[in-house]
């Protein structure tokens, strides 16, 4: 047998067979995936994971560096991996990208070499099956992750397809190869989270199993099937539980005393392969339906590690190729990675045969679309979903809207998803923000769903009186703080959602619904204190609650993950109406400046874990601020927007592990950067407009359906030339500060000329400003 020397960490390790180079790493020609760095966001507060995943894939196969956290301590490890941790516990198959809450981490696998096989992870100071590692041995690319496990001398590689994950482990020469499969492990772990689980080693050597967990999504069920490239030489099924077994969901229900079968709450399995002469491949399919679904998903994506990796890299190059661009490093890596993070969710949830588990915990069948889940809608309605309408307009948005509608049909509460994953509702955050996602897609002409049925589902959610103070909101025109927490935020977010219902109803010709929700869309005024200039919470007696401090941030108070500084700007549907209440353009600009320039030296926000990326009272690390820099354009001062965008991009994004200032929140932070770098942003999804900011790329092209292209070209772009001097659209001067969606979709060229000096006249006139309900001359806008 030929033996080769391979570099492992800082020492040379003699391996039986060195792993073949990943196909992506052997390419010399630039391809879209080459500029992506999945390690961006894995440190600091980004909460992203570096592991292998296909575009919108069901499997996110990634390393976990800590799975022992409880309660608030889990926040830094919401994605399982944290860049500054010294050890890897194992590789699990499900992860969130950038969430502010942790869960998942299903089916953890860890390779072990030698005769001693520990069955507990241990601690970083006293490792069991966990291992130390060095970032110098890591490689992370779209669809591929690799690292050397220093304590075991094992090179671990990961890739993933749409519904499968594939591991490849190269063990040291002469040492026995083992795997530890730990079903006890989970992110956001605590006693009693694993309600029930099962393992079954089948006669053909395939290992199947399941588990039911009580976590962020209660009663979540996941099934898996695992196939190995080498035969087993031995195994041990171990039940480590000490509690009374849960007697609810029982899974397949076979003989739990059989040598190849165990049921319980704390299951592990040791899998032995002897001394191997080639790398061990482990292929895993998962399903939310049953083990048969996991097996079908496993068999449905043919081939081994290299085959799956090649297919997934090609899928990534196609998906990322929706935007071609030019940029200098590090902006090239920042932008490419932001685009990559925007294409991870909503993830696939239905099996290959179309079956899926719904919010009612029942099995349903989708016949002509792929069901998606992982909807972080309070975050993603703002920019992530509008971006997908441009770069994934057919497949993704048809699937997304139909998935939202299917979920509403099967929901025991009859409401569209709020924050859903694995088909289960978590009721996290506020609003009914599936509504603007559907309305925005419909208003842009994206079909593939029954629009009238969709509107009915939207109205049903908006009229669900028992949800989040909606009954009080409908009766009073605002949510009272003595009846419902975070009332000020809920009032304005409901009003915006209502406006998008009205927009869609008006376009469908359903004037009764349109009129009712147009009136509700003005409810933001009922919580706005014009005398002080702040959005404030009101009580049932109509009085604003006192005492009042616009800088106060406390969970469960008047606002959601923010304060009056952020939420007083949330009127996307009528910024012009808000500015009149603030006293006009000049006063509005002064207040915007005061927000960015606020002195934080005497304020401590350390108690609020989601508050990160502060520029004064502007908080880029959390979503309520994301549109605010663009609001200068509504006040006739787009040059001030251009200044603030430069300030934000320079301070909040970097091509480092800590390169995201806050949770990526399933792609929202990244989608903000993608839009902003292109030069425009959807302040009010549903308006069919994008507010023009300033570009950060010399050139970019949106590759649109039908072979159309929308090119954004920039002259004189530099650090010094940060101001827009002039803009042309298809060669004609553009004096307004917004683009219409149809102008992008029909293809053409948007050209910026940049300068070191601001053009204070461009976009100053009232007629040049973006859409506001109170100043609109038509609906939808048709202004030139």
From TrEMBL:
Skewed-composition ranges (Polar residues): 762-784
Signal peptide: 1-26
Pfam families reported for this sequence: Glyco_hydro_92, Glyco_hydro_92N
Classification via InterPro entries: 6-hairpin_glycosidase_sf, GH-type_carb-bd, GH92_a_mannosidase_put, GH92_N, Glyco_hydro_92, PNGase
Domain Glycosyl hydrolase family 92 N-terminal stretches: 36-287
Domain (Glycosyl hydrolase family) ranges: 294-755
GO-annotated molecular function: carbohydrate binding; peptide-N4-(N-acetyl-beta-glucosaminyl)asparagine amidase activity
UniProt entry keywords in alphabetical sequence: Signal
Cellular compartments per GO CC: cytosol
Matches recorded under PANTHER family: PEPTIDE N-GLYCANASE PNGASE -RELATED (PTHR12143), SECRETED PROTEIN (PTHR12143:SF39)
Name of the featured protein: Putative alpha-1,2-mannosidase
Biological source species: Sphingomonas aerolata
